[in-house]
Amino acid sequence: MYRIGQGIDFHQLAEGRELWLGGILIPHTKGAVGHSDADVLLHAICDAMLGALALGDIGKHFPDTENKYKGIDSKILLKECYELIKRKGYQLVNIDSTLLLQAPKIKPYVEQMQVAIAAIVGLTIDDVSIKATTTEHLSFIGREEGVVATANVLLQKSVLITEELPIVAVAMEPAPPTVTEEGVNTTLPQQN
Ligand SMILES: [Zn+2]
């Protein structure tokens, strides 16, 4: 049994903020604005996982009106989302994502992001795809006013690990006595 999910997230960029993308801090003149650490890529992945099981979105599970999520590391949110998925009996198969931003170039950081994400969701980096594109200076992304991420995930129903269960020998019980009109007959019924 497979389920597919997609997620998309937007954040404004502003000076004086840190730029967290894919679970790592990227040196840049601007950072993403948000209630949490505003990691747009991790938020899109969270939404894709929740969406795959029709569990709503990240805002439903982690409202930005709650103080406890202020400035929170989005890796914690990703971990909690994956715990929800696992409790529903599913595991991740792979993630494919795209970051849309004009600057900085994120190619030097992609592998670090893959490692950070894979470690949280128990995948290898081969199962965590992170692509990036500019918008050729078009739109709010091209003007470096904001950053967008999209993600798709595939979930698979968890395989029952039956080999870890203890093997219990089942003893054959003697047949229970049969009840007749004359009383309890402890002998087996005759086979004709
Ligand atoms: Zn977000």
| Radius of gyration, taken over Cα atoms and rounded to an integer in Å | 26 Å
Q: How are the strands of the largest sheet arranged?
A: 4-1-7-5-6
* Bound ligands: zinc ion
What sort of overall outline do the alpha carbons produce when their principal axes are compared?
elongated
Q: Tell me the span between the first and last alpha carbons.
A: 49 Å
**CATH architecture group name:** 2-Layer Sandwich
Indicate the mean pLDDT.
Answer: 90
> What would you give as the CATH superfamily?
2-C-methyl-D-erythritol 2,4-cyclodiphosphate synthase
Q: Would you count the extended β strands for me?
A: 9
- CATH names the topology as 60s Ribosomal Protein L30, Chain: A
Q: β content, as a range?
A: 25-35%
Structural class: alpha+beta
> Percent helix among the residues?
10-25%
What oligomeric arrangement do these chains adopt?
Answer: single chain
Total number of helices: 5
Topology summary:
Layout: E1 2-15, E2 19-21, E3 24-26, E4 30-32, H1 40-52, H2 58-61, H3 74-87, E5 90-100, H4 110-121, E6 128-133, H5 139-142, E7 146-157, E8 178-180, E9 183-185
Parallel strand pairs: 5-6
Antiparallel strand pairs: 1-4, 1-7, 2-3, 5-7, 8-9
Helix pairs in contact: 1-3, 3-4
Bound molecules: zinc ion.
Zinc ion (ZN) binds at residues 9, 11, 34, 38, 40, 43.
